[in-house]
Amino acid sequence: MNSRDDPSKVALSIAAVERDTGIGKDTLRVWERRYGFPQPDRDANGERTYPLLQVEKLRTIKRLMDQGHRPGRIVAQSIEALQHLSRGETSLPPSQAPSLAHNSQDLMTYIAMLQCQDHEGLRHDLLKALSQNGLERFVTDVVAPLTTLVGDAWARGDLAVHQEHLYTECVSNLMRQAIAAISRAASGLGPSVLLTTFPQEAHGLGLLMVESVLTLQGCRCLSLGTQTPVRDIAQAAKAHRADVVALSFSATMNPNHVVDGLAELNVLLPSSIAVWVGGSAPVLRRRSLEDVVVLSDLQAIIRAVQQWRGLKRSV
């Protein structure tokens, strides 16, 4: 019996699978690394070949993706579970149902999209996550851990600079739109906060995450963007009658620039304006920074706002 008589022996090249399923070659390779499926064999020339059973599963996956399912939640599922979904049933069997929370597999799906240049899919899925979870959970459960993963992937060489920039721009645009919508309904019960970074700090995504959490807490936020000279920060804070200056520092920030800049800023600011700092710069945890509130994470921002309100009520 040859392969024509036994379909289980038939295997397709990666080009043939791409044509048959509509799933690109790069995507197939990324799924193979990330999710352990597909699992191609190799021909005499070392080229990937895909058994028909795997191709059939890939067809089912493509149909489900067209219906709006995310690859990260379905690629590693069994064919029985995928057929369960493809029949129009709304959920997987209980034993195979994934968690609704964003887990590491969900986050790696976004990385795979970046690697495949799927910017439309990336924006679609991130917007869906924002719509379903709300801005606070989107920032804390998706953007914060995903930004760390993107940075790590770039450092390992798994992502190119342009892919990291694409991620930053996509997430930034979504958060700016959400912040603008929330700002119109902000209660104004929080402090007035001026947000920016020092001249040596070009990373602005952390600043946007902070602004998102502050806006949700009813703060009035004014962002100067990144790389503002220290004297200009002080002048702007006084001109706009800010209660707080909030600064973000990434891990690449020179420790001396952080310490010296904060010392200069505290000299230039009146004592009525607080300085809140956060980010991944190690110096924020290793050094004692006088007259500065160090926010260790996004939840610490909420506590800082609550403490500010408590002090205002006690005055």
Question: Please, could you describe this protein's structure?
Answer:
- The protein is an alpha/beta fold.
- The protein has three domains: 1-98, Multidrug-efflux Transporter Regulator, Chain: A, Domain 2, CATH 1.10.1660.10; 101-185, Methionine synthase domain (Methyltransferase, Methionine Synthase (B12-binding Domains), Chain A, domain 1); 187-314, Rossmann fold (3-Layer(aba) Sandwich), CATH 3.40.50.280.
- It has helices at 14-21, 25-35, 52-66, 71-74, 79-86, 104-115, 119-156, 161-183, 205-216, 230-239, 255-268, 283-286, 298-314, and strands at residues 11-13, 41-42, 48-51, 192-196, 220-223, 244-249, 274-279, 293-295.
- The strands form two sheets. The protein has a five-stranded parallel beta sheet with strand order 5-4-6-7-8, sandwiched between helices. The chain has a three-stranded antiparallel beta sheet with strand order 1-3-2.
- Strand 4, helix 9 (205-216) and strand 5 form a beta-alpha-beta unit.
- Helix 3 (52-66) packs parallel to helix 5 and helix 9 packs across helix 13.
- The model is unreliable at 1-7 and 89-101 (pLDDT under 50).
